[in-house]
């Protein structure tokens, strides 16, 4: 029986933003957030730029949870009564 061989995989994604990342208990470093999660075992894998010349841009270091609020509203309590915000189009609440 032959030993199992690793299965090559390619994950295609895009950089969403670049920023200084402060990992808990570690140094701060310049990071590029990608639009795909890193599966278990991908840490240390190279991140390539494909066009116009292929080159290594960095290494996978961690997964982080992020979220963006695109629309939200809060109920307002006035004199013990809950009031819903107006939807008359005069303002957009929580839009980014």
Fold and architecture overview:
With 96 residues, the protein is an all-beta fold. The protein has a domain at 15-59. Helices cover 0% and strands 31% of the residues. It contains no helices and 6 strands. The protein has a two-stranded antiparallel ribbon. It is elongated, with a radius of gyration of 22 Å.
Give me the count of strands: 6
Report the sheet-strand fraction: 25-35%
Strand order of the largest sheet: 1-2
Rg over CA atoms, rounded to whole Å, is 22 Å
List the topology elements:
Blueprint: E1 15-22, E2 28-34, E3 46-49, E4 55-59, E5 76-78, E6 81-83
Antiparallel strand pairs: 1-2, 3-4, 5-6
Descriptive terms for the model:
96 residues; mainly beta; two-stranded antiparallel ribbon; 6 strands; disordered C terminus
